[in-house]
Amino acid sequence: MSLSVSLTAIPGIPDIRDGDDLAAIIGDRLDAADLGLRHGDILCVAQKVFSKAEGCIIPLDSVTPSDEALRYAEELNKDARKVEVVLRESTRVVRSFRRPDQNEGTMICEHRLGFISANAAVDESNFGEESAVMVLPPDPDASCDALRAALHARFGAEIGVVMTDTFGRPWRLGQVNVAIGLSKVPATIREQGNTDAWGRPLQVTEPALADEIAAASGLVVRKDGKTPAVLLRGLDWTPAESRGADILRKKQEDMFR
Amino acid sequence: MSLSVSLTAIPGIPDIRDGDDLAAIIGDRLDAADLGLRHGDILCVAQKVFSKAEGCIIPLDSVTPSDEALRYAEELNKDARKVEVVLRESTRVVRSFRRPDQNEGTMICEHRLGFISANAAVDESNFGEESAVMVLPPDPDASCDALRAALHARFGAEIGVVMTDTFGRPWRLGQVNVAIGLSKVPATIREQGNTDAWGRPLQVTEPALADEIAAASGLVVRKDGKTPAVLLRGLDWTPAESRGADILRKKQEDMFR
């Protein structure tokens, strides 16, 4: 039972560039802030940081839109080249719409990695290039594994890593961070079969631990603040071999596809 | 900019009963744990605690199911009296289903308070009575206001209060805590018009602060642990007159009703 945890934005992380050694940069900032890494720490790192380090930036000049992209672009008042990138990142467009108050419409897509989000998580802001878009890393779990292994080698601590992205939700306004890649952090905790504090069997309860962690990291990260990495310390958790896709409902269990 | 926040489960909160003075109980536990309350603290308290203190428990013996309840009960293999309570708490059933692996089906409802959740947040577990169900407090914002005012009177600190409940989500497995009642805590933070760290205007970004706080509280609350109240300390935030309903998308903005 965790009684107290802390979330700390790791200070001083510079703008990341293609080819940067994330583990070295984050490790140096952890040392500089006298935080280090301890057994059981969990690092939450924004997708943008991984995408920049892995060069997942697509110049729009290099993109030729398909007929399908041209159709969506006209319907939604979007740049057809951006739509083309969204379609390439997606296995399916779940819904598309443009409300009267929207300049550009929205495409709700099933991403190649399985999750459903707006515009297939293709990002146009916050990476300093006007005529390019950013896509997710090819394998977020592998990116998390590599960061975890390198930091383990440096600090000797058994830690977990969560890659976060910022998603909107049906029914509820605003965005929260969710987990899209995991290393060692359990996607969910199965509490079925436990009893509650009054001895009665719990109904199906499966806290989405990785998403709780991702959402919590949002409390100390603000987009305009260059604080893309957060250290969660003090959580009582058991490492698992979860992958980001473990957080996704199977199609047949999901009534909202 | 918050660089570090802490989340602490307030220890020793007893089982709450109808008529209990929540502010006195929580205040005593805060003092006993040498936590107290400071300016800017936010208390996250589980819905169950408020519902118990406010007597929101309905003995099933007192419920006569309607024809509609009987129909759902048969289709979903549910107790018709429980279904009746769900229907009374709801303005609309959005979807109902029973998957082959489910003993009892699920009703996704629009609650009278406006949010969409499973079984209209009617709870059968974790309150120690076999033949009764628990419903949400009549006015969660008012419940939060009353708790905040009483704790302000005792500690003199300007604080915020969030009432949390545990919801499933479309597309993603497991549950996270969300905010269903607010006192002084902003529902969301509007970042439109800001620029990102590289000077480019941010696209529409509106972090759902109250839901981030609620989700974070789940990290130190476990259902079987009797830790229904969490103290968030260190967050940099500005009080607002938000209400729980401010977190809900308007119908015309929501493509998933």
TrEMBL record, chains A, B:
Keywords: GTP-binding, Ligase, Magnesium, Manganese, Metal-binding, Nucleotide-binding, Potassium. Residues 13-234 form the Coenzyme F420:L-glutamate ligase-like domain. Pfam families: F420_ligase. GO terms for molecular function: coenzyme F420-0:L-glutamate ligase activity; GTP binding; metal ion binding. NCBIfam families: F420_cofE. It comes from Limimaricola cinnabarinus. This is Coenzyme F420-0:L-glutamate ligase. It comes from the Bacteria. The keyword Ligase applies. Coiled coil: none annotated.
